[in-house]
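Convert to structure. Protein one:
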Amino acid sequence: MTRIAVVGGGISGMTAALRAARDLRADVTLYESAAVLGGHANTVVVDDPSGPIAVDTAFLVYNRLHYPRFVALLRELGVEDETCAADMSASFVDDDRDMRYALLRGLGGVFCQKENLLRPAFWRIFLDLAAFRRRARADVRADRIDEATTLGAYLEPYSAAFRDHFVVPLTAAIWSLPDEHVLLYPARAILAFFENHGLLAGRSGAAWRTFRGGSRVYVDAFARTFGGTLRLGEKVSRIERRPGGRVIVRSSSGEASFDHAVLATHADTSLALLAAPTREERALLGAFRYHPTTVTLHEDTSLLHPDPRLRASWNTVRRRGVLRITYLLNRVQPVATRRELLLTLGDAPIRPEKVLRTFSYAHPIFDAEAVSAQRRLASLDGGAVSFCGAWAGHGFHEDGVVAAERVIAALPARLPAAQRASSWTVGSSRTTFGTPASARSR
């Protein structure tokens, strides 16, 4: 039986392990350095008088229309029925310029600031939005946005109010990155994501879903159904390729020999694990940089605007030149408590007594170098080693699933001919590899 090692227990690693074990009938060992699986699917339990409350701290929602492979995975794991509609309301507050409004919170949210009714800059936001949607959709479909064009350059024809009070905070919230990075991002990649998720058409709202009980629902289902070996809390330190197509995985418990290894970690981590990376691996994997983000689960509502009409699922608040993003988990997920549970990205003046938990996550920076490298990933042939991750797409769950399925679909052709003939059997009708909307622009 073909032996495959999968390194990394996030969405890509779990998908790769499941596909290799179920669809290719391989003997799979999944290594995860943390004590639990999931990666960004990290659900924690908050004690409450009403009983334990499960909330997510990184991966919160998915889009049913535009995440077809992830939805298929949920169905395969038998947990799609454990999801529900997500509230996608958004609040934009700029205390420095005295501008604030909310979307999908009714007219009271849009016009909560009476001064906006007589403020031309406010109305210009929505006029520019209509023009921006038409132009961006046409440009994306015609593929006429130069790869070197930044989002800041693309937004030059529009007002500063539209840029600073809509596009920048929205994009920063989606990618969980500081706003100073946003305008330097390649416009082509950003707008392709907007189009693929229905944001340019303004019709994606009803398709967003979240999990009852948190995203651990699908992680636990994977752990129950995975037929291979799980090595949790076991850190891999080195990947060595040997003559004859063998690969040695060195971990905290020793070393093991495999026919193939799938590195489903961040691109920079994968590169660091390789004992002897090729020039192409150094160039392509090394093109991806990551931004470490501190995430705080807390109850300090002073970070939000006091007006309840401006308390939405996604809240962006600019104060003293700093843009902060806070999720009101009570609105995003079905949280049964009167306490307001908040999740804030980055450093923030949160009162210590209000802090529940603190986490650190790393998000890929999709700058021009990274986007250029993505277009050449198909040529990356590591012999007995393959690479996958959400970084190969837009950085989201669907991209992680697609990247893993592509790697597993290509594996039989990468094995030595004798081994393919003698030991590899593709025997599952579940092996259906498609290209979702979120990856077509790639």
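Protein two, convert as well:
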Amino acid sequence: MKFKTTIIFFVIFLVILAFVYFFETKGKSEEGKEEKLIALSSDDVQKITFKKEDEAFIFQKDEKDEWLISEPIEAKADKYEVDQLADNFSDLKIERVVEEEPDELEKYNIPQKEISLWFKDKEKPVKILIGMENPLDNTFFAKRDDETRIVLIPSHLKSMMEKKLFDFRQKDIFRFETDEVKSIKLRAKETSWEASKKEEEWFLKKPVDALAEENKIDTILNSLSGMKAKEFISEEKKKEELKKYGLSRPEYEIILAMPLSDQEVTFGLHKEEDKLYATTSLSSKIVIVEEIVLSDLEKKLEELREKGVADFYSWEANRLYLKKGEIELTVAKDEDDIWRFKSPVKDEADNDKIQTFIRKIESLEAEEFIDPPLSLKDYGLDSPMGEVKIWVKEDEDKVKEITFLFGTEDKDAKKIVVRNTRFDYLFKVDSAFLEEFPKDIKEWKAEKKEEKEKK
């Protein structure tokens, strides 16, 4: 009998244990689950109205799914800021339910703010009414317009709800596709020049005709395209405003030609005291921008010129011709990338010495430019002391040939004038690289196996 009673009590204990476990697990699951005031996709938000105590904003997507401001002004919106607003309020967490059936809303100061979201394929917006800040934990009292309950929403929303119109505006209002720019005319306080793009290279055209350093030109274009408004001065600029802010005759004027889009845009910038005013011929606005752009616009002509005597990669070279004094030779890479003599002998060449020589030529940089008009005879280039040709395989079908001529060395200054036959101007460079020229063809021959073994 006692045994049977024990079994019965044990079974009852197991049932109670299972019952407790089930409800505890369920309770923990429900407790861990976040309750949402709204749980919809921000991608479906098409329109937002944001009303505050002293202002109201309306944001709406256009046919390209880009955010625009339609109230209180018509302007492009900052995509990041408006997307963040949509993200925060379309998936809105409840920190705690305060009251299910409140007697009055006034004690929560509801509504101080009002945010309405229009979702795709929904007729009516979801409206959130927001009240005062809870002094205990800095959350905010809020309710949905179609619900009775009062809830608390997260404190991190405070910074978003305090944003002004400027915060929601697109700041880079002068943006353009830098790759489309094919020519530049720049006039600054202390410099003036013109440049044009041919294939992938930039060439200065005025006041000199010379290859420009690609990165320097790209930096200027990126600076102009990326200029951000610090302050909007005028939405619809007028002649008197252009004059007032020095933009009728600006200190800096940059004209960009974009043939692909059949556009020409003129940037005007004028600095007055600690403010830099800017506008363009394609914009109706006058804004204040950061002064950092001036460091690029004020670069001297010499800073923009490409200082490298030639632009190539030494590892892409596959053929070399060299003539200096009595030495004249040609070497080329075979199918195994081994340098071999083509003339005057057919031996294997010393790969390290040839690669070192080509790298020295690759790294030559101008310490000074000599521009036309000039006389080649004055620099020993009518009958050059040396000549080097390098063939560079840029792709399967294209090989570039580069020819260098070397004038008379100034041994006291340790300088020599070099001509790249592609250009009309000359380069004055450090003459230390002359040490890499072979004094005898034997110097560039590869050591034979038995000679290596003796060493």
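The chain has a mean pLDDT of 90. The chain has three domains: 36-168, 178-304, 314-454.
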